[in-house]
Amino acid sequence: MWNGKMLHKKMKRCNVGEADLIAKLREANVHDFNEVKAVIFESTGDVSVIHNNENKKVEPQLLKDVNTQSLFFNKENV
C-alpha cells in the first residue's frame, strides 16, 4: 500500500491478499486508508504500516532500503 492505495500487483507478487492486508491495517489501528503512507513487507517476514492522519511526510530514512522508485514513476502498480 502506498499513500492510501492498494498496490494489487505488488501484493500478488508478495502473495498477500486484500483480507490479509486489511487485517494488518487493523492491527496497526488504521481508521482510514488515506491515513496509510506505506505498508512495507520486511525481509524478516514482518509487515510495517506507516500511517498518520496529519499529512506528515515520511522520514526518508524510514524508506531507505525500500524499493519505491516504481511507485513514483509507474502507475501500473495499482
Automatic annotation (TrEMBL):
Keywords noted in UniProt: Cell membrane, Membrane, Transmembrane, Transmembrane helix
Q: Which Pfam families does its entry note? A: DUF421
Look up keyword Membrane and say if it applies.
yes
Q: Establish whether keyword Membrane is in the entry.
A: yes
Protein name as catalogued? YetF C-terminal domain-containing protein
List residues of the YetF C-terminal domain. 3-63
Instruction: Tell me the membrane topology, using the record's own terms.
Output: Multi-pass membrane protein
Q: Which GO terms describe its cellular component?
A: plasma membrane
InterPro entries attached here? DUF421 (IPR007353), UPF0702_alpha/beta_dom_sf (IPR023090)
Q: Principal localization? A: membrane
- To which protein family does this belong? Belongs to the UPF0702 family.
Location of this chain's protein in the cell:
Cell membrane
